[in-house]
Give the backbone structure.
Amino acid sequence: MAASGRFISLEGMDGCGKSTQARLLVERLRAQGCEVVQTREPGGSEGAEDIRRLLVEGDPGRWSPETEILLFTAARRDHLERLIAPALARGAIVVTDRFADSTRVYQGAARADLRGVVDQLHSLMIKQEPDLTLVLDMEPDAALIRGLARKSGEDRFEDMGLGFQQRLRDGFRALTRADPKRCKLIAAEGAEEAVAERVFAAVSEAFHE
Ligand code: TMP
C-alpha cells in the first residue's frame, strides 16, 4: 500500500473490539513501513481529551443529546485541526477509533432523532470524511457484556442499556447501507486474529492501486 495520506476510521457499538482491531491494523501497516498515526475519539488531541472526560464519565442523563452533539463536535474540530489534518497533509495514514459516524449514530439516531442537526453541524465545522470506514458488527448483548467487563469508569453510554445497544447496531448497519463505497461491514465475532484478517482484507481492497 502506498504511504500517502489515507484516513481510516473504525466504528461500532461499545465493546465490539474496535480498539483492539485498530491496534492490530496499525501494527500491520507499520510493519509494511507506512507512517501511521493511531488516534481515537472523543479525544486524540489535548483539548479533545479534556472534553472526552466530560462526555464519558458520570450519570447517563448528565447532558442532553443536543449538548452532546456540540461537545463531540468541538472535540472533533480540535482533533482535526491539531492532529488529523497535519498528519494527512504530510502523507501519513491516520487510523482513528471512531469519528463522525459515531455522532451520526449515537446522537443522531440512538439517543435521539437528531440526524439533521448532526449533519448541519458536521458540514459547518468538520467537512472531512474518512477515505474508508470499517464498521465492526456483532450481537449487542455480547458487546455490552464485553464493554461493561472492562470496568473502565467510562461507561456512561454502556449504562444506557441493551435496547440502546440494539439501536446502535441498527444505526451503524443503516449507515453502511447508505454509503457502501466508504463503509464496510466487518463481522466482529470470533477470534481477534480472524477479525483482524477481515479488517486487513477490507483495507487492502479499498486501497489497492
Ligand atoms: P469509546 O468507548 O469508543 O472510547 O467511546 C466513548 C463513548 O462515546 C462511546 O460510548 C461512544 C460515545 N460517542 C458518542 O456518543 N458520540 C461520538 O461522536 C463519539 C466519538 C463517541
Observations:
- The chain has eight helices and five strands.
- Helices lie at 18-31, 46-56, 65-89, 100-110, 115-125, 140-149, 162-178, 192-206.
